[in-house]
Design brief:
With about 625 residues, the protein is of the alpha/beta class. Helices cover about 45% and strands about 15% of the residues. The protein is built from 24 helices and 16 strands. The strands form 4 sheets. A 6-stranded antiparallel β-sheet has the order 3-7-8-2-1-6. A 5-stranded mixed β-sheet has the order 10-11-9-12-13. The chain has a 3-stranded parallel β-sheet with strand order 14-15-16, with helices on one face. α5 (about 160-185) packs parallel to α12 (about 320-335), α8 (about 210-225) packs parallel to α11 and α9 packs antiparallel against α11. Mean pLDDT is about 80; it is low at about 1-120.
Length: about 625
């Protein structure tokens, strides 16, 4: 007899089968595979990314269990446990459609268990080159080859259109990268962020192939130029083309996108297509390109209509194509950047403008309240279609006018510094995808080295301590601040004073805003530099923030493990920085500390640091036998 647990996804069910009905598979264990399951995992394609099968539990919307030959009380208990686990997932309304098929076999409590699910991809949901990985860029190779061939062997530039398509692709990628850089510069954007949580690694993985649409539209443009050669022979400039472009965009592209977008929010199309775009919990410029193949085919039509229309009217130009495509991507990134950059004063002075230009806040409401704000760039069509969110302008004004109130005081600050020029490029505001992986030297970092070196010199001349990253742990906000100095600078004698000034500035700022603990990292706690932070504590005795570093935190953990009733402690490594801190603290608690060290001089130096009435509690020993009666 076989029992089935049916875990219901938005697409179709999964059946988990096992061999012993008297020992049913507990759903709670299934949902925590890293702790309970020894899995033989297969990695298949899901939304264009390789994911472990059991991670799909993150998108559960419900569960049904059929428990045969199990007592009624036990069945009720297990159902109650199951739905208590699913409660957070039930709040998530995002739905995803997965491509491909998978089969997974794993061992649970020594028994063979199989999870089998077969799912056919929805038509045009998967990208044709999703399995090519980085080699997908080879699809643009024929364009480069055709241009080089005509230039070198035919002595003409008749295929200059190939170069234009490649340049536009590069500029589009650059626009997205620059927006990504800006949105991840927390030291500039932290007070104007719309959603305060950060982008997690799962979202980065899902959005890894955000640039698929650039390849699609490059291939579409190539086919258009080959079929209609007149498209490749446009003049450089024609001012009438920009007027025709604007009219076609406003009268055709905007309403077409609006109604197509509304249609994609209907049940079937949203579940199988558009839900992929809405699966990103935090908006990011790369989220703009994260969608299915069908959606970007339609978006290509939306972009192409004004361009082709202007050319057919005889007003086309090369500058018009460049300007429209790049402006289109710029505004798409603007809406998804999660940083409010449009000041509300503009709308106060020009109220009509709010219906002709959307804002990041406006589009963020579409992702949080999916039944509103469907427009491409012009909220006018939401007003006409009665889908304009009534909170759009108020929320925009609140974020821009009270930006200083949006900043939350961290509980803990880690004061770090830059290691070297190469590792400085391993930051989310440089390359998000590269920063999401463990650091390693890559060949593509070489071109960025001179730029980073120049930035280092600018930081050396004029910069201050800045926010790099943040994370939330057990309800507490932790931030990483960076002193604008590189590792080698800490060993330059003339740079010592400036580094200490930056560290002091960071400590005073943390104290001023109400940070509870600030930890000095790496070389910032160097004994030769500032005595492990004692320089600042002695200089500012009224500090409310606790200045610590790795050694003091380790000492605190060790001291916390020592029972309060202990009267005698045997301490090895007693004259090290860690041992010194532990010994001085314990002697103040009137605990005898047997300090194992052969250096009388170093022992006496530590003893002199203790209060006079506590110095007798520090005892030098030179042999391990002295600890034979110690409990700790």
């Amino acid at each position: 007899m076989v029992d089935n647990y049916q875990l219901v996804f938005t697409m179709d069910p999964i059946y988990i089968e096992y061999s012993q009905p008297d020992k049913p598979l507990i759903p709670q264990k299934l949902l925590r595979p890293s702790q309970q399951l020894c899995a033989v995992r297969t990695r298949e394609m899901a939304n264009g990314k390789r994911v472990e099968i059991l991670r799909l539990c993150g998108f559960l919307l419900g569960a049904i269990s059929r428990l045969s030959a199990i007592p009624e009380k036990r069945e009720k208990r297990e159902k109650r446990e199951l739905f208590s686990i699913l409660k957070p997932s039930l709040k998530e309304k995002r739905e995803l459609s997965f491509t491909g098929s998978w089969k997974n076999i794993f061992v649970y409590r020594g028994k063979l268990v199989s999870c089998v699910r077969k799912k056919m991809a929805s038509p045009l949901s998967a990208w044709p080159w999703e399995n090519l990985g980085i080699f997908k860029y080879v699809l643009c190779g024929p364009l480069a080859a055709k241009f080089v061939y005509s230039w070198m062997y035919e002595d003409s530039l008749k295929d200059l259109w190939c170069l234009h398509i490649l340049l536009i692709c590069g500029l589009r990628g650059l626009i997205h990268q620059l927006w990504s850089t800006y949105s991840n510069m927390l030291f500039l954007t932290r007070n104007r962020r719309i959603m305060q949580q950060g982008v997690d690694f799962k979202q980065i993985d899902r959005e890894w192939d955000w640039d698929n649409f650039i390849i699609l539209q490059a291939l579409s443009a190539s086919m258009g130029c080959l079929i209609f050669p007149s498209l490749a022979n446009l003049p450089l400039w024609n001012p009438k083309g920009f007027i025709a472009l604007q009219l076609l965009h406003m009268t055709i592209s905007e309403p077409l996108y609006y109604w197509a977008h509304r249609l994609f929010h209907e049940s079937y199309l949203f579940t199988h297509y558009h839900s992929l775009h809405h699966s990103s919990p935090v908006l990011h410029p790369f989220t703009a390109g994260h969608a299915t193949f069908l959606e970007h085919l339609i978006l290509s039509i939306v972009i192409g209509i004004p361009i082709i229309g202007s050319i057919l009217m005889g007003y086309g130009s090369t500058s018009m194509v460049y300007g429209y495509v790049l402006a289109f991507d710029f505004l798409r990134c603007l809406g998804h950047c999660n940083v409010e950059v449009v000041p509300h004063e503009i709308f106060n002075k020009l109220p009509f403008l709010r219906y002709f230009l959307y804002t990041p806040t406006y589009h963020s409401l579409h992702h949080s309240e999916q039944g509103t704000n469907f427009c491409l760039f012009m909220p006018l069509f939401d007003a006409i279609g009665k889908t304009l969110n009534s909170n759009s302008w108020q929320l925009h004004k609140k974020i821009t006018s009270d930006s200083w109130k949006n900043s939350k005081v961290p509980d803990f600050v880690f004061l770090a510094h830059v290691v070297d020029v190469t590792s400085a490029m391993h930051q989310p505001f440089v390359w998000r995808s590269f920063a999401s992986m463990p650091f390693s030297t890559r060949i593509f970092l070489v071109p960025g080295w001179p730029v980073t070196f120049i930035i280092m010199l600018i930081m050396w001349a004029r910069s201050k301590t800045f926010l790099v990253t943040f994370y939330n742990l057990r309800g507490r906000l932790h931030q990483t601040w960076a002193v604008p100095r590189f590792g080698f600078q800490y060993f330059l004698p003339f740079a010592t004073e400036g580094i200490n000034n930056h560290i002091e500035e960071g400590i005073l700022r943390a104290d001023r805003i109400g940070v509870k603990v600030i930890s000095l990292a790496a070389l910032n706690k160097n004994e030769a530099l500032n005595g492990g932070g004692t320089l600042f504590v002695n200089k500012h005795p009224d500090l409310k923030v606790r200045v610590v570093h790795g050694n003091t935190l380790t000492a605190a953990v060790i001291l916390n493990e020592i029972p309060e009733d202990v009267k005698e402690v045997f301490l090895t490594g007693a004259t090290s920085k860690l041992g010194r801190a532990i010994a001085l603290y314990l002697c103040r608690r009137r605990v005898y500390v047997l300090m194992l060290t052969s250096s009388t001089e170093r022992f006496q130096n530590i003893q002199k640091e203790a209060p006079l009435d506590c110095q007798n509690y520090l005892v030098q020993v030179t042999k391990y036998q002295a600890a034979q009666n110690c409990k700790v």
